[in-house]
Amino acid sequence: MGGTGLQLSELSFGSWLTFAKQIKDNTAEECMAYAYDNGINFFDNAEIYSKGKSEEVMGKILKKMGWDRSTYVVSSKVFWGGDLPNQSGLSRKHIMEGFEASARRLQMDYLDLFICHRPDKNTPIEETVRAMNDLITQGKILYWGTSEWSAQEIQEAYGVARQYNLVPPSMEQPQYNMLTRDKFEVEYKQLYKNIGLGTTVWSPLASGLLTGKHNKKLQEATRFGIDGLDWLKDRLYQKENIDRVIALDAFAKELGIPTAALALLWVLKNPNVSTAITGASKVEQVKLNIDALEYKPLITNEVMEKIEGILDNAPEHPQF
C-alpha cells in the first residue's frame, strides 16, 4: 500500500450499499467467504454504512469464520457518526469515540486502517492528525488515511505530521474508474511520488455502469434504484457514458473478455492503485470480479491505447 509495508490483494471487498441494506446476512457471509478463500485479504467498511449495521454484520461474519487475524486487513471510516454535535466530523472527540464504536461493532481489538471519510472544514487538520497518531501509538489502529480529500489537504496533513514527528496519512480512498479520472490521475499525481501515497480506490466499475448491464435500459433493481442515490445516477448515467460503455463492450467481445473484467483490469493497470474495492450483491459477482484477473496478460499497452481512444476522456495535465 503505497510507501508502507502493508500487502493488499489487488481486488478487495467492500460493504457499501449492500450489507444490512441490499443483501441478507447469509449472502454477505457467502460473499466474504468466497472472497477470502480466493485470495482477497482486505475488507472495507465505514461507520455510516447502514448507520453502523454494516459493521455489525461484518463483525459477526469475521468472528464466525475464525480466520487468523494476521491473514486479513479491515478498514473503517470515520466522519458521519450521528446527527448531534460531536457525533460527526474529525474532532478528537469524534475520532476517539468513533473508533471505539466501530471496533465494538466489528468485534475487534484494533483496525488495520482507519480512514477520515471526508475532510472536516470545522476542525484544524493538526487536531485530526494528532488524534490519529494517538490511536496508532495506543495500538488501536495500524495505519490511517483519508477519503476524497484534496491533494492540498493531504499534503497539509502530511506536513503537520512531519513537523511534529507524528505518523502521517499513508493512503487515500478516492473514486477511480474509466469514467472518473481527473482527481486520481492529475490532482494526486505528485503525492504518489513525493509522499508514497497508497490508494484503496472505490467504484472501479462505476457502480455497475461499466459492466454493460445498463446499456439498453437503466436497471432499477440495482444501486441506481436505491433511495437517496439519485446523485450517483445523475452523475454517471449519461448518454456519453453509455455510448462509451457500448463501444467498450464491443471491444471487449473482440478480445474475448467480459466488459466488467476489462474495466477492472484497466484500473489495476495503473501502478498507483494499491487495491480496487469491489462490492457484490451475490456470490456470482464476487466470482466474476476475481476471475477477471485471469485476463491480465491480454491487457497490453496496445490494448490500453485502444481503450484510451474509445474513452476519449483523458484528463489534461498542467504544463509546468
Can I get a quick summary?
By secondary structure, this protein is an alpha/beta fold. It contains twelve helices and eight strands.
CATH architectural label of the domain at 11-205 and 270-295: Alpha-Beta Barrel
Percent helix among the residues?
Answer: 40-55%
CATH T-level fold name of the domain at 11-205 and 270-295: TIM Barrel
Poorly predicted segments: none
Shape annotation: globular
Rg from C-alpha positions? 19 Å
- What is the terminal-to-terminal distance? 28 Å
As a percent range, the share of strand residues is: 5-15%
Q: Give the helix/strand class.
A: alpha/beta
> Strands of the biggest beta sheet: in what spatial order?
1-2-3-4-5-6-7-8
Which labels suit this protein?
320 residues, alpha/beta, TIM Barrel, 8-stranded parallel β-barrel, 42% helix
Q: What features would you describe in this structure?
A:
With 320 residues, this protein is an alpha/beta fold. The protein has a domain at 11-205 and 270-295: NADP-dependent oxidoreductase domain (TIM Barrel). It is built from twelve helices and eight strands. The mean pLDDT is 94.
